[in-house]
Structures are given as structure tokens and as C-alpha cells.
Write a structure and sequence with these properties.
The complex is a heterodimer of chains A (225) and B (109). Chain A is an all-alpha fold and 225 residues long. Chain A has helices at residues 10-37, 42-57, 73-80, 82-99, 108-132, 137-163, 170-207, 209-214, and strands at 60-61, 66-68. Classes of the chains: A mainly alpha (225), B mainly alpha (109).
């Protein structure tokens, strides 16, 4: 999902940066509020950040014969709400832009928007919906993380199609091409991310049941102490 | 079943990684004898696609630092994963130990 440095026209680069900035700012505010009011949740905040670090470093092969990476943002979005993941995702993307030449400073805003904003919001929304539909806990987590991951890559495809519409077919034709590169490749990886997130939540509900209740992830009756 | 759930999930993830490696075969080298690369990064494919749709597009910025080789790049990716995995391992280890100590404390009481 990294749009390479310089590969978005100036107007688009600026537009996505302006769109992302308030989310990152509000996310910073919400994270620092969490740390101040509930310092015991720092550990879980660390877990969410660490998970994103690991997963976005793993480039995995896909059935399409290309490689891509999961995002790991679903976990933190389910725990702390979608806003908290904007600054955390931004840190990971900045690390990769500065040191790895993956993504870039000019495309940072667009990449933050797909991975650290759309992905977490989708994951959070899907989790709440699935929970309201009374699906089993593991299924809720899986769907949230997998769809958050997949929609991140759909967003990247939309961003590139908006910037580079096909001369003949326009936005739709261009979107179809970029979505083949990104979204289709991503399907097995999104499933992997969903499964890995369930594994972490199994451990969380064993070791940190009280925090999960405090964060309103589960109701008290769902966790056996 | 619950006990083995995490192992089953991990096995599924491993299968999802291995299956593409088994079923995707490199196409025959082209007429010019050039090997076709498989498992290329999707980010790079998107870059190629941009140049295909808009042939005269020129990127207007360049990365400040480019890893000097593929080896250095994998070093940095390994570092990123190690930082994350290290923290996750610390959390899991300390949580498991705390749970065990609490349990043995309850037994004594």
C-alpha cells in the first residue's frame, strides 16, 4: 500500500496530507489522554504498536505471484478506538519512508490515510457491527482485522486511480487495474492478519481480562476471570 | 479444541504463506532470454502501472535515503520486525509469569 515517493501529483499529495493531519492530531491527543488517565494501559498500547511494527515488516507472498504486507492496525483499533492508530501508523510509515525508501514524505499523508485511518475505522466499525450481531468473539475479531487490512489496500487503489485516471476508461478502468495489483493480492494476507489478530486476542483475554473490560472491548460477563 | 486453537490458527497462517510459493511457477524466460521475476513487491508493480497509464509522469521527489542494497534493506526490515516481536515477547512472558505466580499464590493461601 505504500505509494512511492514522488508518485502522487503535487495537488493530491497536499490534499491527502491535509485530510490526514487532523486525525493524527486528534489521535495524539487521545493516546496521551489514555496514558495520563489509565497508565496501566500503557502495556497494551505497546502491544498494539509492536503488532503493527511486526506485521507491516512482513512481506508475504500471495497467490497472484506478488508480495505485499499486512498492516496490523486492526488490533489497536479494536482496543483503543480508531483514532489512536493514526499516530501509531504514522510512526511506522515515517520509519519506512525515511530509512527504507518505502513510501515517502510527499506521499506520507496518502499512506497514513489508507493504513492508519481508513483501515482502523473499518476494523473498529466491523467489530462493533459483528458484536451487535452477536457473532462469537473470535469471529468478530477476525472479520474486523481482515476487512480493515483489505480496505486499506482498496483505499490505496482509489487514491492512485484518482491521481492517474485511465486515458480511455477514466477512474473506473484505472481503479480496476490498481485494485488487481493491490486488493486481490491482499486477500490471503488479510486472512492471515485476521488469524494472527485472533491469536493475540486469545492471549489478551487470558492475561488482561480487566483491561479488555475497561476498554469496553468485551462486557464483563464475557470474560471468565 | 480451545487449547489447540492458537496452534491451528498459526498452522493456517503458515499454509497461507506456503501455498502461493508452491502453486505460482515462474513463467518461461521470454524470447530475449530474460528471466521473469515472480513475487515482486506490489508497491513496485503499482509504480510500473502508473508509468504505463501516464507514460510521461515524472516523480517530483526522491527518497532522501535509499538503502544501498537489498541486504541493507532486509536488515532494516528485520530490525523493524525484531523491535515489535521483542516487545510482544516481553509482554507475553511477563503476563504468563504473573498469571502463574498468582495461581501458585492462591494455592498456598
Amino acid at each position: 500500500m505504500h505509494i512511492m515517493e514522488g508518485f502522487l501529483p503535487v495537488k493530491h499529495a497536499i490534499g491527502w496530507s491535509i485530510a490526514s493531519a487532523p486525525f493524527v492530531a486528534y489521535g495524539l491527543y487521545s493516546v496521551s489522554k489514555t496514558i495520563k488517565e489509565k497508565p496501566e494501559q500503557r502495556m497494551l498500547l505497546g502491544v498494539a504498536t509492536a503488532f503493527t511494527f511486526v506485521l507491516s515488516a512482513l512481506k508475504m507472498p500471495s497467490v497472484t505471484g506478488s508480495c505485499s504486507h499486512p498492516t496490523g492496525t486492526g488490533l489497536g483499533a479494536i482496543l483503543f478506538g480508531p483514532a489512536a492508530m493514526a499516530p501509531i501508523g504514522a510512526v511506522v510509515l515515517l520509519f519506512q519512508a525515511l530509512l527504507l525508501a518505502h513510501g515517502g514524505i510527499t506521499t506520507l499523508g496518502a499512506n497514513i490515510f489508507s493504513m492508519a485511518i481508513v483501515g482502523p475505522f473499518v476494523a473498529f466499525g466491523v467489530y462493533r457491527l459483528a458484536k451487535a450481531a452477536k457473532l462469537p468473539f473470535g469471529v468478530c475479531i477476525f472479520l474486523a482485522a481482515a476487512l480493515g487490512d483489505l480496505l486499506t489496500y482498496v483505499t490505496t487503489s482509489v487514491q492512485l486511480a484518482l491521481a492517474f485516471p485511465d486515458p480511455a476508461g477514466g477512474f473506473a478502468a484505472s481503479f480496476a487495474k490498481f485494485a488487481t495489483v493491490f486488493a486481490v493480492t491482499q486477500i490471503p494476507l488479510a486472512i492471515s492478519e485476521g488469524l494472527l489478530t485472533v491469536i493475540v486476542f486469545n492471549a489478551l483475554s487470558r492475561f488482561n481480562p480487566r483491561e479488555l473490560q475497561e476498554l469496553d472491548v468485551v462486557e464483563s460477563r464475557e470474560v471468565q476471570a | 479444541m480451545k487449547r489447540y486453537q492458537n496452534l491451528i490458527l498459526l498452522a493456517l497462517v503458515a499454509a497461507l504463506v506456503v501455498i502461493p510459493l508452491l502453486i505460482v511457477k515462474a513463467p518461461e524466460p521470454g524470447p530475449d532470454g530474460e528471466e521473469v521475476e515472480i513475487f515482486e513487491g506490489a508497491d513496485n508493480q503499482a509504480k510500473d502501472l502508473i508509468t504505463e497509464i501516464v507514460p510521461d509522469y515524472h516523480p517530483w521527489a526522491e527518497s532522501l535515503l535509499e538503502p544501498p542494497s537489498g541486504e541493507i534493506e532486509s536488515l532494516l526490515f528485520a530490525l523493524q520486525a525484531a523491535l515489535g516481536a521483542g516487545f510482544l515477547g516481553y509482554w507475553y512472558g511477563s503476563s504468563a509469569t504473573r498469571a502463574r505466580l498468582r495461581q501458585s499464590g492462591e494455592k498456598k493461601a
